[in-house]
Amino acid sequence: MSTSPTPPQPTDDSSSDARARRALADAVREIEHHVASAGWDAPVRVFALVRTQAALEAEPGLAGQLDAQVLAAARADDQHLTSVEQEGLPSADDLEHLLGGLTWPPTVHGAAVTVERVVLPPGAEEDLPTDPEAALAALLSHPQRQDVRLAVGVLRDGPSWCAVRTRAHDSDDAVGQGPDLVPGLVEAVRATLA
């Protein structure tokens, strides 16, 4: 008995979930591009993500602050997101403590963060000194170190998206993207929405 392969099932790219994933990816790309335009050596930046249609309903005056293309996109898709950078963040010793201290009201549909890090290739960390100050000095002077900017966004109802840019390949067409490129940071941002 022979069987023919099952034909691929049609996908519904117009479903609410697919549009939410696409809107999140667009928002994270826009955030990363915005942060990149300011250059490197930047502090952590945090953004609330709100569904633009809902924000316009709650605050009609917002329409005067948005670009005509943004308004058109928001009117065409109820999943469209607007990012709102958070200023005056509480002081924290590190990113984990900063994120651990954040909570969002129900009107915020997601959150995003950008942070710069220094990474080494696999195995290179094994040669670092155990003393934290000496390890930092060795990391910063390591010939194989890479400076990266991470942009991670998560929606309250589940999807995540990441964008990664390296200083060595600092161009918009060289930004890596995907839903789970930085799983630890995805989970830390997700925890702020719980």
UniProtKB/TrEMBL annotation:
This is PPA1309 family protein. It comes from the Bacteria. Residues 1-22 are annotated as: Disordered. InterPro entries: PPA1309-like. It comes from Cellulomonas wangsupingiae. Residues 1-10 have a biased composition (Pro residues).
